[in-house]
Every structure is written in structure tokens, then in C-alpha cells.
């Protein structure tokens, strides 16, 4: 029961990250926000991270290129693009568009790793991408044909692509590093990569409202979506397995939409429902075959 609670809290934290960033989008530059968030995470985990990084220094040195790539894609880029997108689009749209990531991962696996895609999976990809098109065009065919999309939705799309490439690249992570050490390296490298841009944005004279809402938002983003979500997710996966835990990811758009309506007074329209229905249908079609294949392989190994 505890594992289910932890896995339910994880997407709640991640959805809260989007809603919180949208709530303060007018008070703090998005790049500065990303930098301050990860700088605070780094300061919080440093006492535990440094000894692990030092003990694993040879492994880190050997696998430095892939670790640099993973760090830049995850810590330095993904949330920065999300925060940039939230300057111009609603939190509900951002949460819904992120739900297309599993389908993008299937597509990238085929393009980059030559993994075959079945007819059912192709159908899922097309259905899911149709859902994305419905969201970004607000179900307006003229907007779709004219390619006049909300700039924020485009940044969210870039973030989804970034996270999908990161997810595919994880297969080359050094297996000798435990999860927390990998997380720590990513935070150190990602924060250093963000530092020049974050410091520049903080010093360029843009007015920042350093009130309680902004400070509490940064603290929440560092503690909830970053540290606690990581710990809760790993504990849930350890107890229930990756396949069952993965289902909880689909709660992100649900929580995101609910919190957007409750805390940001955002309105829901018919195109939101149509878009998420198409995306979820596409996810089911695109990932079902892969899950069945994995289960068949596991069964074969035990017989």
C-alpha cells in the first residue's frame, strides 16, 4: 500500500512542477528559474553526493561523454524548455502534451536503434500525434494548415523530444553507477551547464519579484519534483517493478489538468478532452505490443 502511495505522489509532484512554474511565469525568467531550482537541489544533496561521486570517479571518467549527454538533456535542458514554454501556454496544455513522450520514445527507438515497429504501433503513433495536433491547434484546422502554433506549445514539444532522446540514451548509462550517483552526477553537470545562462539572465536587469510565492515555488521545485519524486519513484519501482510503476506516469496529465483548473483558474475545452483521449489511445496501441513482447521474453526465460 505504501508503494502505491509513493508512486501516486511522484506524478503529483511532477505535475505540480508545471503548475507552479506557470503560476510564477511573470515573476521570474524561465532560465533563471531552472538554474536556481537545480542549484538548490545541488546544495541539498551535496553532502551525500560528493563521497559517492569520489568513489566512482574512475567509472565517471571512463563514461564521461554519455554522462555529459544525459546531464545536459535532463537537468540542463528538459525543465528549462518546459519553463520557457509555460511563458506562453497554459499548464494544462503543457501537462497534456508531455503525455505524448512514450509514443515519441517508441518512434525514436525505431529511428535510432532500428527497433521494428508493428502496424499496431504505427497506428498508435499516428493517433497520438493527431492528439498532439488537436491540442496545439486547438482543434482548428486553419491553424494547423497555416502552421501558426502557440510558441509555448512548440517549446513544450522540444522538451518532450529532449526527454525522449534522454530516455533512449539511458540504455548506454554506466551500469556500475547506482541510481543516486547517476542522479548526483547529472545534477552537478547539469547545474554547471546551466550556470552561465542562469547567471546572465539573473544579471541582465530583468525585474524579479523576490516575494514569498517565488521563493516557496523554487523550494518546492527543488524538494518535491526533484529530490522526493526521485526517492519515491525508486522505492516504488523496487517494490512493484518498472512495468507496474510505469503506469503511474499517466497520472501526470490528470493531476496537471486538475491543479491547473483548481489553482490557476484555467478553463478546459472540448479540444483538451479530444486531444488527451487520442494521445492515451495512441500510447496504449504503441506500447502494448512492446510490453507483451517483454512479458513473453521473461516467460521464456523462466520455462
Automatic annotation (TrEMBL):
InterPro entries: Diverse_Substrate_Transporter, EamA_dom, EmrE-like
CC annotations in GO: plasma membrane
Primary localization class, coarse: membrane
Cell membrane among keywords: yes
Membrane topology: Multi-pass membrane protein
EamA domain mapped to chain residues: 2-136, 151-287
Transmembrane region(s): 31-50, 62-83, 95-113, 125-147, 153-172, 179-200, 212-233, 245-263, 269-287
Keyword terms of this UniProt record: Cell membrane, Membrane, Transmembrane, Transmembrane helix
Location of the protein in the cell: Cell membrane
PANTHER family linked: INNER MEMBRANE PROTEIN YTFF, OS03G0707200 PROTEIN-RELATED
Name recorded for this polypeptide: Drug/metabolite transporter (DMT)-like permease
Organism: Marinobacterium mangrovicola
